[in-house]
Amino acid sequence: MPDTPPPSPRDRFDFEVGPIRPPSEAQSLLLRVTRNCPWNRCTFCAVYKRARFSRRPRAEVEADVDAMGALRDHLRELSVTLGEAGAITEAVAQAAVRELPEHEGLPQLLRFLWAGGRTAFLQDGNSLVMPPADLAAVLERLRRTFPDLERVTTYARSQTLARRSVPELTTLREAGLDRVHVGLESGADAVLARVLKGCTQAEQIAGGKAVLAAGMELSEYVMPGLGGADLSDVHADETAAALRAIGPHFVRLRTLGLRGGTELKTEFQAGGFVPLSEDGVIREIRRFVVGLGDTRTTLVSDHVLNLLEGVEGRLPGDAPRILAVIDGYLERPDADRLAFRVGRRLGALRDPDDLENPGVRAALAPYLEAARTHPDGPDGYVRKLLARMI
Which residues of 34-53 are buried (b: 16+ CB within 10 A; e: fewer)? Predict the structure, then answer.
């Protein structure tokens, strides 16, 4: 019987990486605490549809932390060998990729170190289902291994947060968890029930308040358009009401995209879900911003599916400027609004004022003609373009 070969020294660098993270965590260290989503029934989400949820054992996650630390140390040693004095430079990155060409976590670790190694994000969809004592131990190990971390964040479901006590959440904050990202999506019970979100407005409010009571930052995600044409007003009004009750640090807009492989896309194709036009979504966002009233929060538009990037700022002070951005778009002629929507979804425009740049309208002309003659009309053509961005 042949001898078993000794493990490669590179084995100590192995660690898992999950599929997604918030845009604001693009330069964060990604530590996979759980695999996939424990709920996985939302009709608008395709991320985990064919994947089974599992909790990773604490020892396994801690081993990943150690592997990340070992790889960081190896990269610094490689940097010294290359004459880069321990800095993570392009030369170091290229050498590391040549040495470890199939390491799935290497690119994100390089980005993390390149950016200064200041933030980390716990994956996947609901890390707080891990027993609080185990998660606290993981956080403490992460902080010891990467002592320069200034912020550690995670995703969590409202229903899970509502079931965690404030003392439990406080323990996690003391262990090193600084911010929780929550997919609120809607605060309207009618919308939540229709898309099988698995929680109620009351649970969302309770969960959000618990995070704040524990002393952590809270980032709530809202999905304009999720109520469709029939529930748009209640979606805007009740979502604003929920956020008024919570008072999160951040509200992040994530406009609905009808993704292939989702039940909501199938429902749309069968005629059961009638989406808003993009202009309808902008009107809904306007109603939502007005509904937030005096809520003190930061409204963020940091996703490619959002039509107007300028709809962001510190509320309530920036509300007049944000509403002016929305009204400025809605008051443009129909042809201009269509031109901007098409240009935005082609990736050619970022602001309606970009239409004034020389040559833009001429370049868009064939696409605008395609929009006008599309079998499902201009909105159908824009949805087709939008689908390429999802």
Answer: bbbbbbbebbbbbbbeeeeb
Q: Which two tokens stand for residue 66?
A: 């150690």
* Token couple for 297: 């929060």
Orientation angle between helical segments 334-345 and 319-330, nearest 10 degrees: 110
C-alpha 345/C-alpha 337 separation (Å) is 12
Segments making up each domain of the chain, as ranges: 9-334, 335-390
Tens digits of residue pLDDT in 76-105: 999 999 999 999 999 999 999 999 999 999
Q: Which of 204, 200, 210, 114 is nearest to 165 (CA)?
A: 210
User: pLDDT tens digit string along 224-252?
Assistant: 999 999 999 999 999 999 999 999 999 99
Q: Where are the beta strands (DSSP E) in 186-287?
A: 217-222, 250-253
pTM: 0.92
Half-sphere exposure of 242 (CA within 13 A, CB side): 29
Token pair 């707080």 in the structure block, residue: 128
DSSP E strand stretches across the chain: 29-32, 34-35, 54-55, 119-123, 151-156, 179-185, 217-222, 250-253, 297-300, 313-315
Under CATH, which number does the domain 9-334 receive? 3.20.20
CA distance 173 to 214: 7
